[in-house]
Amino acid sequence: MAIWLNKDSKVIVQGMTGATGMKHTKLMLGDGTNVVGGVNPRKAGTTVDFDGTEVPVFGTVKEAIEKTGADVSVIFVPEKFTKDAVVEAIDAEIPLAVVITEGIAVHDSASFWAYAGKKGNKTRIIGPNCPGIITPGQSNVGIIPGDITKPGRIGLVSKSGTLTYQMMYELRDIGFSTAVGIGGDPIIGSTHIDALAAFQDDPETELIVMIGEIGGDAEERAAAFIQKNVTKPVVGYVAGFTAPEGKTMGHAGAIVSGSSGTAQAKKEALEAAGVKVGKTPTETAKLAREILGG
């Protein structure tokens, strides 16, 4: 089983013909992802050869969906054009849009997030500034290395791309149902809570690992949701225990003001909800392993 992405998902790549899009489309195909097309208005009607796999290029997301039945778009468009690309995906009502691009203006993210809501939230957005989503052995959409884990019993949701990879590797012998990198910007699409709800409903996810970081109150809200709605064991890690107050650390959303948004406050909120929280990624993986008996 999986959440949001499986072997039947038909994927298009907005920005496929750019350098980054080309590189990661090749890697996604290598992981078995069913990439059915790219989108570039200037190259519509052409095809791109990826080691013998010919992938057609369409002029619009709407046309790509009509021609291929695509239900997932992954977006590798430069930041100044990303808002338009996401809006196009929303207008075409593609069920899932994974926005990899970083450096997007917060105003643009707020704009397409609000637009998705105005259109009835028919398009689930993951990101921006995220590594994407992988269901090992089935499909990989984004930039997560496909060879660091295997299918298994753990669901992973993380703000951090690097820590997503580390946790997948640390628990590679147990494996993952799906791993989702939601991104660390101040405004994102899908949240910890969205993933927690989906993993709770997935019968083959036995344990959830949730990785947060300093800044904002997303982890505190997730803790409240876990307390009320999640019956499966959850293990957590919060990055940023040594971060100085008032300084943005890495992700644009990772900034602490006073006691608000600190790693300690988030740890305490999660533990109060019954979540076991590790002090390091390795300790967090050990906690997960102990719960699953592996």
Task: Give descriptors for this structure.
294 residues; alpha/beta; Rossmann fold; 2 domains; seven-stranded mixed β-sheet; 14 strands; nucleotide-binding; nucleotide binding; CoA_lig_alpha
Protein described:
The protein has 294 residues and is an alpha/beta fold. It folds into 2 domains: 11-126, Rossmann fold, CATH 3.40.50; 148-292, 3-Layer(aba) Sandwich (Rossmann fold), CATH 3.40.50.261. Helix content is 34%, strand content 23%. The protein has 9 helices and 14 strands. The chain has helices at 19-30, 61-68, 79-91, 106-118, 161-170, 192-201, 218-229, 263-272, 281-292, and strands spanning 11-14, 35-39, 47-50, 53-58, 72-75, 96-99, 124-126, 132-135, 139-142, 151-158, 176-181, 207-213, 234-239, 276-278. Helix 4 (106-118) links the parallel strand 6 (96-99) and strand 7 (124-126). The chain is globular, with a radius of gyration of 19 Å. One of its GO terms (molecular function) is succinate-CoA ligase (ADP-forming) activity. Its EC number is 6.2.1.5. It catalyses: succinate + ATP + CoA = succinyl-CoA + ADP + phosphate; GTP + succinate + CoA = succinyl-CoA + GDP + phosphate.
